[in-house]
User: What shape does this take?
Amino acid sequence: MRRTLGCRHYNQYKQNVTINNNNSNNLISSLARPFGSDERLVSSVKSYENADKLKDEILRDNKDQSGIYRWVNNLTGKTYVGSGVNLAKRLGSYYNIPELNRNSRPIKDALLKYGHANFTLDILEYCPKAKLLEREQFYLDLLVPDYNILKYAYSLLGFKHSQESIEKLKAKIISPEHKEILSSTHKGKLVSEEIRNKLAAATASYRKDNPLTPEALANIKAKTTAREGVTVSVLNTQTNEVKEFTNQTEAGEFMGVTRQAVYNAIKRGSVISGRYLVTKM
Assistant: This one.
């Protein structure tokens, strides 16, 4: 059951504001919660005792509203304070189980461990978007919530990743889809000649210091052959010498051109470098 509480906030947005409620016992039970001192420092505008059961009501009530919210663990009394430009959207993210699993945070881990049914969601206050940062910081300083790992609103200042998190970041594998998205964001951007030269020098230096092993080269060759699957012959029209290659990349290396150039020459029946005629076998 959602409770709309009579409350007073001594701040510039709510001066002795009271929201009427026909059941005065709700206010008494709210202010008498047996948890930490932060529970008694403020009273909320709205409170949802069972965040699982009241999910739809939470999202509906807070659509297009901006303000400050608090999660309260009904079993341990631990809390988390946050803010949202669109509270419905922000709060909705806490019900996205894959998202909770993907980005580990104390509040997310707690929601997964204890379940939304064991959490109360409080709307501490609604306020203008321009004041969210200020008001969130006010509650962070006042309540010192247990699940907040950052001391400052909208900031990573003072936050340090654990060694376990660092190792996970190092081992993270970017999917082909993610790579495509990253690549698309840079399409059409112009890179200066100076930057190109620096990148080329850095790449050359890395390859020099980290040469591929014979095993790695053989593996690359095998994968290339499997991928391309095209055996070609190269005729030197000037000497009538014929060479065979297991793939277009090797043929290109022999003639000093790219694989794409070999592909185009085969398709068009053209001669490469004025003397090489390439055909599929």
Remarks:
- Residues 130 and 275 are 70 Å apart (CA to CA).
- The chain has 13 helices and nine strands.
- Confidence is low (pLDDT under 50) at residues 1-37, 155-159.
